[in-house]
């Protein structure tokens, strides 16, 4: 059984480097050590022992994966620890027999609860603790902590609800802490960080998956001569497998059964398990975007080395004008006005709705509804269950957007109307629904038990909504994501029957090579003729939509889960302005207001997510676009933290209050500019221009709160850099998971 001590030592090694390749190697070695026991499994003669040992290896690997990603179940289970900073401080106080006030003061100085407890000297006065479970801990139990046992306790904590649940959770977690030897405080450091759901070592999910894939590849090819090893893209295979089936238990199960090169053949999307949605590429310059579509580009650069960056380094000179680079890049550009009919595929322009992305699954009587980040939203949109069951097709996965909708006026309402809907039922309603049954798997197999038969209508979610369907990913037992976009549309139209004012197809029109609307399909329901993409764009805006999504037809147009691709181009109203798209930014901090705002926060510090380094980089301050009600609400709701989170990178920018990075705001700005103060995308800027500058926003304005998004869904520093380059008519550098 893999010890938690070895796991913690591995995390400590990772914390000593910022190089992703080194981190991958460290993790790969760790996974390989676990798999070395699997070698014994295959040599076991007794089938029963073989099965038992294989099950043990699987449990060790999956437990490790969950702890490495600070999760306890797949995201669609909607199960969390429910442990806040206050409870963790109380745990440390009880553990060290100190007063909470003392721990808080130390926390302010040290800035990290994990580092704080690793410096705790002893557990004096254990006998005085009024914790029965802690008193039962004896020396034999010490040093027996494993990754499996830690995960089991965390899962038990996640199910602890109701009266006295906080005290019960504290007992369970404190008992876990007491099993660690005082001299092995490195375990306490990472145990506390797991309680916080933040390892703070720059470890991203993508890195974990790549290391896992490489370790299995090395395991299956351990006896092969280097020259005889088949060249395969391990990184792409493991990421694609996870994107199709984002469940560590199922992923490891398949890895233990099949070689890496055969993994995708046995990994299919499954009704009831959400996959990460395909994303559209924002673009300020439609001409440039379409030239990328024509060349079949999408965001998926090499994982181990950003070959494009390295190539640009060779081209660049010390001269700021980069004449050689400009000549090469201009040569690659395509003027869409001069292309012939055969040179560029046709497109479909669909409305870009201002709502919430929903992935709706149906398996006969079972209905599942997921957000763009795989959160289960069956409670929030429970009225859709009856509507989905009215559809003739009994088995499907559809990609949709739900909007607030006035069914009398047949018009789309503001996004904020949708945001006010409750995401979850209250405690009494939850008990009636017996939601815990949703999270429990049957002993045989991995069936997901639907909750929809156990949910009653939520009266608080009675506002009108309408779902607009724009793609189909699975239909009647078969995956459709590998099919071209045109084929998926045919399957969608054939199998999904719209229900008026409830579930309808996204409004869209086919375009020719010159972006003119195809005749015989160019009139609105009101008889208005649409001839060009400009007509469509204006029609979308007048229909209370954000703009258009331009989608590529042709053989190279599959649905790519989790990819941000130029097969789909997002053209929002901002396209007519400077930046080209609104940005989804992370709230990092706040400044107290003055004058009219003296009782609230007046301005806020926002940042963008650097997914390569797992850091949040300061981008701008914002103080416009807020109503008085917004400021009052955020003053109450934003979660303050005493010290700057370790993942923040702000070049000594210090707000009055640090905010926990869980809030995503949509922001518009006039333009992007270089900055010596804000160092967002500094690494990319240096690689491309050789200057230690960052990027900032000019005249940012708050638009709305994006409660449907988390950090991973926010605008990345790579996208910020790409938008800056588009402003300067340069090729972009981007990397997508």
Number of domains: 4
Using the alpha-carbon principal axes, give the shape: globular
pLDDT averaged over residues: 80
The oligomeric status of these chains comes to: single chain
Helical segment count: 25
State Rg.
27 Å
Q: Which spans of ≥5 residues are poorly predicted at pLDDT below 50?
A: 43-48, 124-136, 300-345, 425-462, 730-737
Describe this structure in words.
The chain is an alpha+beta fold. The protein has 4 domains: 4-70 and 203-232, no CATH class; 85-196, DNA ligase i, domain 1 (Orthogonal Bundle); 349-574, DNA ligase/mRNA capping enzyme (D-amino Acid Aminotransferase, Chain A, domain 1, 2-Layer Sandwich); 577-727, Beta Barrel (OB fold (Dihydrolipoamide Acetyltransferase, E2P)), CATH 2.40.50.140. Strands 13, 14, 15, 16, 17, 18, 19 and 22 form an 8-stranded mixed beta sheet that branches. Strand 7 (465-475) and strand 8 (478-479) form a beta hairpin. The protein is globular.
Give a quick precis of the structure.
With 737 residues, the protein is of the alpha+beta class. Helix 1 runs antiparallel to helix 2 (20-42).
Task: Spell out the key features of this protein.
cell cycle; globular; eight-stranded mixed beta sheet; disordered C terminus; alpha+beta; 25 helices; DNA ligase i, domain 1; D-amino Acid Aminotransferase, Chain A, domain 1; seven-stranded mixed beta sheet; 737 residues; DNA binding; nucleotide-binding; 36% helix; cell division
């Amino acid at each position: 059984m893999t010890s938690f001590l070895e796991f913690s030592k591995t995390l400590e090694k990772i914390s000593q480097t910022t190089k992703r390749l080194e981190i991958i190697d460290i993790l790969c070695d760790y996974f390989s050590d676990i798999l070395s026991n699997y070698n014994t499994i295959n040599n076991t003669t007794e089938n029963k022992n073989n099965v038992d040992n294989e099950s043990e290896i699987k449990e060790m690997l999956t437990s490790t994966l969950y702890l490495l990603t600070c999760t306890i179940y797949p995201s669609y289970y909607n199960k969390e620890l429910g442990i806040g900073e206050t409870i963790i401080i109380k745990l440390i106080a009880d553990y060290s027999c100190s007063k909470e006030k003392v721990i808080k003061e130390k926390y302010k100085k040290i800035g990290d609860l994990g580092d704080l407890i690793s410096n705790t000297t002893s557990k004096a006065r254990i006998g005085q603790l009024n914790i029965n479970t802690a008193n039962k801990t004896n020396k034999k139990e010490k040093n027996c902590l494993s990754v499996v046992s830690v995960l089991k306790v965390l899962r038990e904590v996640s199910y602890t609800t109701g009266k006295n649940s906080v005290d019960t959770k504290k007992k369970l977690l404190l008992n876990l802490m007491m099993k660690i030897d005082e001299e092995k405080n490195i375990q306490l450091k990472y145990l506390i960080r797991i309680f916080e759901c933040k390892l703070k070592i720059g470890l991203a999910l993508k890195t974990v998956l790549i290391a896992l894939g490489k370790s299995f590849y090395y395991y299956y090819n351990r006896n092969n001569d280097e020259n005889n090893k088949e060249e395969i893209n391990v990184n792409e295979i493991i990421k694609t497998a996870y994107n199709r089936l984002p469940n560590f238990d199922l992923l490891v199960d398949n890895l233990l059964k099949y070689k890496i090169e055969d993994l995708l053949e046995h990994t299919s999307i499954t009704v009831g398990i959400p996959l990460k949605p395909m994303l559209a590429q924002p673009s300020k310059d439609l001409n440039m975007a379409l030239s990328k579509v024509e060349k079949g580009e999408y965001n998926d650069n090499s994982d181990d080395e950003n070959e494009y960056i390295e190539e640009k380094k060779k081209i660049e000179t010390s001269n700021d004008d980069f004449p050689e680079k400009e000549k090469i890049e201009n040569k690659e550009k395509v003027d869409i006005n001069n292309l012939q009919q055969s040179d560029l595929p046709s497109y479909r322009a669909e409305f870009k709705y201002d709502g919430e992305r929903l992935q709706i699954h149906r398996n006969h009587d079972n209905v599942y509804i997921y957000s763009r980040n795989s959160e289960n939203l069956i409670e929030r949109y429970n009225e859709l269950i009856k509507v989905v069951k009215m559809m003739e097709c009994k088995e499907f996965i559809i990609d949709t957007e739900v909007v607030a909708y006035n069914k009398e006026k047949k018009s789309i309402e503001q996004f904020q109307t949708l945001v006010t809907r409750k995401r979850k039922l209250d405690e009494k309603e939850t008990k009636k629904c017996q939601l815990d049954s949703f999270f429990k798997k049957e002993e045989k197999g991995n069936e997901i038990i639907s909750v929809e038969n156990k949910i009653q209508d939520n009266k608080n979610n009675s506002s009108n909504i309408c779902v607009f369907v724009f793609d189909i990913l699975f239909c009647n037992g078969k995956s459709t994501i590998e099919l071209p976009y045109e084929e998926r549309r045919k399957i969608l139209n054939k199998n999904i029957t719209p229900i008026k004012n409830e579930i309808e197809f996204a409004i869209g029109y086919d375009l020719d090579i010159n972006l003119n609307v195809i005749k015989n399909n160019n009139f609105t329901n009101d008889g208005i003729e649409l001839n060009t993409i400009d007509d469509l764009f204006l029609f979308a805006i007048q229909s209370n939509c954000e703009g258009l999504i331009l989608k590529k037809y042709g053989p190279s147009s599959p649905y790519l889960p989790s990819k941000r691709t130029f097969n789909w181009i997002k053209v929002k109203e901002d396209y007519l302005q400077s930046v080209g798209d609104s940005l989804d930014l992370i709230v990092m901090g706040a400044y107290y207001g003055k004058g009219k705002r003296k009782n609230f926060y007046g301005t806020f510090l926002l940042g963008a997510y650097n997914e390569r380094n797992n850091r949040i980089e300061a981008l701008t301050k914002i103080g416009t676009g807020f109503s008085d009600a917004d400021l009052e609400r955020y003053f109450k709701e934003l979660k303050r933290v005493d010290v700057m989170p370790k993942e923040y990178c702000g070049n000594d920018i210090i707000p009055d209050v640090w905010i926990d990075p869980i809030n995503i705001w949509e922001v518009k700005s006039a333009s992007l500019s270089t900055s010596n103060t804000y160092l967002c995308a500094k690494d990319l800027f240096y690689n491309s221009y050789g200057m230690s500058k960052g990027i900032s926003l000019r005249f940012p304005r708050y638009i709305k709160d994006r409660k449907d998004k988390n950090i991973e869904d926010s605008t990345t520093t790579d996208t910020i850099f790409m938008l800056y380059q588009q402003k300067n008519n340069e090729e972009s550098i981007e990397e997508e998971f």
